Amino acid sequence: MAIVRYDPFRDLVTTQQDFSRLFNEFFPRRVSGEEVSTYTWAPAIDIYEKGGALVLQADLPGVDPKDVEIRIEDGTLYLKGERKKGKEVKEENYHRVERCYGSFARSFSLPASIDEAKIKAEYKDGQLTLTMPKREEARPKTIKISPVTAA
């Protein structure tokens, strides 16, 4: 039996290689070497409340509004679309590709207080804004206190 010298970093290097392989399988864009021009992406989204409504803003620069689908089903808002790559430049002529292209899909659970029939969508300067008003009965009400008169 041969004597093998213990190397405390051997397992660390193997683990690092395993993580690198796993990371590259899930995220095909590589830091070194050839970069992949398309991979799964999701637009950045903000959701906030304003004036009795829930507002969703999605950053969709370069996405044609005709390529975006918005639907509500069983209290869930679905946002799907695609950012298409321009065809004016051939793929072999690119020096660097950092922008993301391809399909995206996001979904959000909506509170029961949203009036689905009154949702409005606007698209301006690459930003989609959905305004989702609350139902009248779900809005906060102010109750005035009446002074009690002594009898």
Account of the protein in words:
With 151 residues, the chain is mainly beta. It has a domain at 38-136: Immunoglobulin-like (Sandwich), CATH 2.60.40. The chain is 11% helix and 31% strand. The chain is built from 1 helix and 7 strands, in the order αβββββββ. It has one helix at 10-26; strands at 45-50, 53-59, 68-73, 76-83, 102-109, 120-124, 127-133. The longest helix is centred in the N-terminal third of the chain and has 17 residues, at 10-26. The termini are far apart.
Descriptors for this entry?
7 strands, 4-stranded antiparallel sheet, mainly beta, 151 residues, Immunoglobulin-like, single chain, 11% helix, 1 helix
Q: Briefly, what CATH class of the domain at 38-136?
A: Mainly Beta
Q: N- to C-terminal separation?
A: 107 Å
**SSE succession:** HEEEEEEE
CATH 2nd-level architecture of the domain at 38-136: Sandwich
Largest sheet: 4 strands, antiparallel
Percent strand? 25-35%
Strand order of the largest sheet: 1-2-7-6
CA gyration radius, whole angstroms: 26 Å
Number of helical regions: 1
Task: Name the structural class.
Answer: mainly beta
Mean pLDDT level: 80
Fraction in helix: 10-25%
Query: Residue ranges: pLDDT <50 for 5 or more in a row?
Result: 30-38
